[in-house]
Hints:
Structural class: mainly beta
Shape: globular
Oligomer: single chain
Amino acid sequence: xxxxxxxxxxxxxxxxxxxxxxxxxxxxxxxxxxxxxxxxxxxxxxxxxxxxxxxxxxxxxxxxxxxxxxxxxxxxxxxxxxxxxxxxxxxxxxxxxxxxxxxxxxxxxxxxxxxxxxxxxxxxxxxxxxxxxxxxxxxxxxxxxxxxxxxxxxxxxxxxxxxxxxxxxxxxxxxxxxxxxxxxxxxxxxxxxxxxxxxxx
Length: 201
């Protein structure tokens, strides 16, 4: 989530189940290996309610993976889908982060003007030995690295004093509200901030 001076840059996975699994066992006293039948014994289509009930029963309950007891675990609170609406109510910023696994987290940042994609960015947080590094690629271009400068529960601060702007990236979690801030370093008045709310875990 970085911006350059030249140009600013900053599924619901459906569970596919066989139709037979969705329909099986939905018709009360009917045999589970037979399709639902009407009162006259003729096969009938399952109702929307029956399919929905069967789908919920068949779909595995999603549970977040355990937080690794390694440096990448410090960033695990970023996992999920986040949305920050634009002040004018048209568009906003979406940020998504994968789970913390294999010493890494992968993320994307998309900025929308209305329904139009205005900017995008590829993100990742990776372990380097016992340290973490935030890597940003605005527009999928050159990668810029920000080593971790400070970490507390629900707080990450990454810094790169050699970069033009930003020099610092801060994430702070408060409940289901995630604040992301980029600035020119400690005491700098040059800053941008977004307030995200969790949309999905």
